[in-house]
């Protein structure tokens, strides 16, 4: 369990590094001076300068950053439009002095890096093939499904019988069929054929008539798995990966639209939607790893697309917010005052952090507790 959590955590960090590398590479392309590329957030643990850029490892392992010269802007209201030498002799390499279209491309560099990474990840998925969870109702085009055990509650009938996470229940094609079998045999012994590590074993258990809340008669959580992503030759996989990235993007946009439409209509969070912060996402990634490398990469690819979309939201403190300020600059023919831009950005940054803390306390911590109990 600890190993999968560690892999999931560093996978998230890797995505953040890829995002910042997108900004980094476009800035370098346009000749902008990049002062620092950091993994983690300060205080700094280690740093090594190559050329003009300091590459650093920092103490707080919650992402990455790139420090671009002049990105903080120049407040012309205070120093006057002719005061550009305030940046020094390298002013011509300042982000603020670039043409707006170049600054927009630098902002979009991180977002594009997410989509490129997603296409590469999905290409690997199509090289390996993958089984993914689906509902009982999702049967169109599915030719091969299986029922796998996702969780086993401690001291439950399933736990006492020796069932384990990852076991496949043979002879049952839908979760509803398993539930009916249990419902019809409460208090009676039943036999299950289980596939584990390629071997078929028979396990007997007796579903409980009465049981603790949120456990059910047997104390297991199930997932229906379908082999829906087939393997392709390595030279065909990139095309399928790119097309699938587009498909996931469209589906994600429709899902986000449905989410906010439901909230605005007063219907609350749509059924099946789950709010999660960084901790919750790490838990989901760790659980995805239990389904094998194919699904783990599939989940990371989908998450990468969501991060790309989230980052273009027109919210200050995100790339999309920076784009809004650049569009305003284009319209009014002068930069937004630095103190205004920084003040608005800080406000929304604090708001996002506050929301993240709320989601962590409300949703993620209970997930951590449940995840820890399941692994005991």
UniProtKB/TrEMBL annotation:
Pfam families: Peptidase_M50. Belongs to the peptidase M50B family. InterPro entries: PDZ, PDZ_sf, Pept_M50_Zn, Peptidase_M50. One of its GO terms (molecular function) is metalloendopeptidase activity. PANTHER family: MEMBRANE METALLOPROTEASE ARASP2, CHLOROPLASTIC-RELATED, REGULATOR OF SIGMA-E PROTEASE RSEP. Residues 126-198 form the PDZ domain. It comes from Candidatus Staskawiczbacteria bacterium RIFCSPHIGHO2_01_FULL_34_27. The chain crosses the membrane at residues 100-128, 295-315, 344-363. Keywords: Hydrolase, Membrane, Metalloprotease, Protease, Transmembrane, Transmembrane helix, Zinc. It comes from the Bacteria. One of its GO terms (biological process) is proteolysis. Its main location: membrane. It is found in: Membrane. This is PDZ domain-containing protein. It is a multi-pass membrane protein. One of its GO terms (cellular component) is membrane. Its cofactor is Zn(2+).
């Amino acid at each position: 369990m600890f190993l999968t959590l560690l892999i999931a955590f560093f996978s998230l960090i890797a995505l953040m590094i890829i995002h910042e590398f997108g900004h980094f590479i476009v800035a370098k392309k346009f000749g902008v001076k990049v002062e620092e590329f950091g993994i983690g957030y300060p205080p700094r643990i280690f740093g090594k300068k190559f050329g003009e850029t300091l590459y650093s490892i920092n103490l707080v392992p919650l992402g990455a950053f790139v420090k671009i010269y002049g990105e903080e802007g120049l407040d012309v209201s205070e120093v006057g439009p002719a005061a550009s030498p305030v940046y020094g002799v390298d002013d011509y390499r300042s982000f603020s002095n670039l043409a707006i279209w170049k600054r927009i491309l630098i902002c979009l560099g991180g977002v594009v890096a997410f989509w490129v990474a997603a296409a590469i990840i999905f290409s690997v998925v199509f090289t390996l093939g993958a089984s993914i969870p689906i509902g009982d109702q999702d049967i169109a085009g599915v030719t091969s499904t299986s029922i796998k055990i996702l969780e086993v509650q401690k001291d439950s009938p399933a736990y006492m019988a020796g069932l384990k996470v990852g076991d496949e229940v043979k002879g049952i094609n839908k979760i509803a069929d398993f539930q009916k079998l249990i419902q019809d045999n409460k208090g009676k012994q039943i036999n299950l054929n289980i596939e584990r590590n390629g071997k078929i074993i028979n396990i007997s258990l007796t579903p409980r008539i009465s049981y603790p809340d949120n456990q059910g008669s047997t104390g297991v959580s199930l997932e229906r798995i379908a082999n829906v992503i087939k393997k392709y030759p390595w030279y065909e996989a990139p095309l399928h990966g790119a097309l699938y990235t587009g498909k996931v993007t469209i589906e994600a946009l429709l899902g986000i639209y449905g989410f906010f439409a439901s909230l605005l209509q007063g219907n609350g969070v749509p059924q099946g939607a789950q709010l999660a912060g960084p901790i919750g996402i790490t838990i989901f990634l760790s659980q995805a790893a239990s389904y094998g490398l194919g699904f783990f990469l599939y989940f990371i690819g989908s998450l990468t697309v969501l991060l790309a979309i989230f980052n273009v939201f027109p919210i200050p403190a995100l790339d999309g917010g920076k784009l809004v300020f650049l569009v305003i600059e284009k319209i009014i023919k002068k930069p937004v005052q630095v103190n205004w831009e920084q003040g608005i950005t800080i406000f929304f940054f604090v708001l996002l952090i506050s929301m993240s803390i709320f989601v962590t306390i409300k949703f993620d911590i209970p997930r951590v507790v449940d995840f820890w109990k399941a692994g005991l």
